[in-house]
Design goal:
Radius of gyration: 22 Å
Number of strands: 0
Number of helices: 21
Distance between the termini: 44 Å
Order of helices and strands: HHHHHHHHHHHHHHHHHHHHH
Helix content: over 70%
Strand content: under 5%
Amino acid sequence: MAAFLPYALIIAVIVSFALGTVFNFNVGLLCIVTGFIALVVCGGTGAEIISVLSTSTIALMVGIMFMFTIANKNGTIEKLCNKMLRTVHGKSFLMPFAFAIVGAIVCGTGAGGMATCALMCSPAAGMSKKIKVDPLLMSTTTMHGTFMGQFTPVSAMAVPVLAYLQEAGIDGLEFKIMGWNLALEFVAVVVAFIIFGGLKLVKSKDSITIDLGEIDDTFNVQNWISLACIVLLLVAIIFTELNLGILALTLGFIMLLVSRKHGLDDGSIIKAMPWNSIVMIVGAMALMTLMADSGGTELIVGAIQSLNLGTFGLLILFLVAGLMSFYATSIPVVLAILPLAIQLCNVLGTDGIIPGVVVAICIVATIVDVSPMSNNGGMMLSSAAALIDDSTAVSKMFKKLFYYGLTQIVLWSVICWLLFVVIGL
């Protein structure tokens, strides 16, 4: 039965993503359950799935999420948003870009894409009503802007990806991934701005200005200390070899000590942490590591290689990554596709393009998160729909977003393939 283990684990991955998509279950939890079943069926004890868990990665995720839950609860994140809005003086045609930049900063300083979208989607939808534009204009530009910050070294998306790359012996890609993701997502912001009617807003003679007089953007002591702790963590990532998970917990504890005077306590912070996301990431990483260790990755790469497509096989992987993310959460998709792409590059003898391929997978798998079938896109659509009483209009919004998401899969898969595989950037 041991010889069947790689196939069983491949089936476990497919079943986990399929059930997670259809029934909206936590993919990480499903990965642990299906991985356990596959191991037991093939003669194992199930304990193998525990042995592959990376404690340092778990500590890093918990530490960073602890810090940014405090920063969100003590008002630091909200005031940062308000400061950005003041910089555009409430001008309507600049609002989509202002929200995009705010989303990028909040996401990039550690909150992560899902948490930032949850924070930004409702204000973005409300702003679209104020400035009288298509809700999808504000929502899509805000989301693509948020994704601009998804691969800073402290973001919830980058942490597990960079941890995997380090374990795979691939170092030094932090700023290449971050830079290309920022640049291409900004292009996506501009494209969404044009597609959903932003140019009409620019050309309009009526200059709608939002009154921001009542918005609170004044930092107090706890806000300044929280911001200082975030900056210290960023500095430590770049210039030190400290254990970042423990450092994040320590900085979070300092933030908590100050915030306790304002009504926050450790119990409420721990309860508010996104444990669902932590389980999702840890479970997906565990099953993908098991599959790779058992030889499952080699089987899939061999199947693609047998098609004799050469580097076109990488384009297929990009399309698969985009399609999977269209229906699911992008973090486990990235962790699932990266080992396959790296192994395929090794088999094809194109090791030199591995850094670019890693960047491409990260971008393609996350840029389609505007899909209404994904968690982020679903939140965005719900926020926009809450402002509309007409069910027909909501249905049209869903269809527009659905087809927009599908075009993103093809568009960005081809663009990334040309940039990072054909040209070899």
